[in-house]
Amino acid sequence: MNQGVFLGLVGMVAFIPQMNVMGKTLRVYILAGQSNMQGSAHKKTFAAIGDDSKTAPLLKEVLGPDGEPVEARNSWVACRTNRGGEQATLVGKVKVGYGFDDERIGPEYGFGLFMDRSTEDLILIIKTAWGGKSLAVDFRPPSVGPYQPSKREKENGEKFSEKETGYYYREMIRFVKETLKDDASIQKVVPEYDKEDGYELSGFVWFQGWNDMCNQHHIAQYTENMIHFIADIRREFESPKLPFIVGVLGVYGADPDSRRFDKGLPVTTFRKTQFEAVKQYDSKVDAKFRGNVIAVDSGPFYELELSDIYWKRRMTGEWKSRLKKGEMTKRDYERECDKFGFGDGEITAEEQAIWDRCSSNAEYHYLGSGKTFIRFGKALAEAMLKIETN
């Protein structure tokens, strides 16, 4: 399949009908990244999906008759992540609970539910996600070579040991191989797995970027690092054509420069490095590793109106604190509110209701919006299926 960008079928929100597929082969998908792959969306935010006529049909696929989030039928998860400062391994059916805590989700939920409804095969998602990790250091792929510190890092005496560099890359590989070690290890996660039917490594989804985006030295090398990462993964699992999706950072939407807030972050510049990795990939790797790499942009799923409320709450809160301390005059406060269209600076009852219903985390975690994470997870699944059928 030609490389490209898959934006997701935003208007098609219902899960596709179940298909009758012969056999029960176990299809294995690896999902990896940092905190946004881990997932911050609390289940309390799911109901807000029904507030939008464009997404309302999706709510019927996510909540059962009892109003609780549904559990997958033939899709399982083996998850390695950080919980409360400790490493945790979680296993079970695709459901709520593989995010930051037992009541939150990441992209695996929408991805797993959609895959579950797309085939009669068994699905296993092996998810590794740790917050605050970079591709430049923590997930550094082996073929790119040792990390070269920036001038500032050298001046400050900052060093990264051989053990630190690439540590989470190795942990990711180790956990995947441990999960797939033998029939018994697979059956610990997927009780219905039959060794006679076997398993197939079917795809890899990468969703990460914030920590690299906040470091200009990391941004400069991200495209090259990502290309090496994809090739190394395929080499590691002896799967040269393994379908690979780069989930593009979409905080502040698909056009971050159009936003009024947080102009100091180079989000647009960083997004370009991720798109460029996909665009350049085939020309940079050996022929046997080419093809089946696409980008899926999370930007179209970011809740911009919810973000407006987030920034109004945050900025007016800071200004009120400065006003109280005498660091800002009343006139200055009014000017700032006018500049950003915040009216008198007070959060309205409607805004507060929307915030309480739709959000459960900060803007760099996609506001903890179930509407965002479920739709993006579904878009990832659609994109993966598109690669598989071409």
What does this structure look like?
The structure is a single chain. With 390 residues, the chain is of the alpha/beta class. The protein is built from 13 helices and 10 strands. It has helices at 35-38, 56-62, 108-116, 151-155, 167-179, 183-189, 210-213, 216-236, 267-284, 304-324, 330-339, 349-358, 370-388; strands spanning 4-6, 26-33, 41-42, 75-83, 86-93, 104-105, 122-129, 199-207, 244-248, 293-297. It has an 8-stranded mixed β-sheet with strand order 1-10-9-8-2-7-4-5, with helices on both faces. It has a two-stranded antiparallel ribbon with strand order 3-6. Helix 3 crosses helix 13 and helix 8 runs parallel beside helix 9. The longest helix is centred in the middle third of the chain and has 21 residues, at 216-236. The chain starts with a strand and ends with a helix.
Portion in strands? 15-25%
The helix-and-strand class reads alpha/beta
What coarse outline follows from CA principal-axis ratios?
globular
- Please give the alpha-carbon distance between the first and last residues: 6 Å
Counted beta strands: 10
> Gyration radius, to the nearest Å?
22 Å
Count the helices. How many?
13
Neighbour order of strands in the largest sheet: 1-10-9-8-2-7-4-5
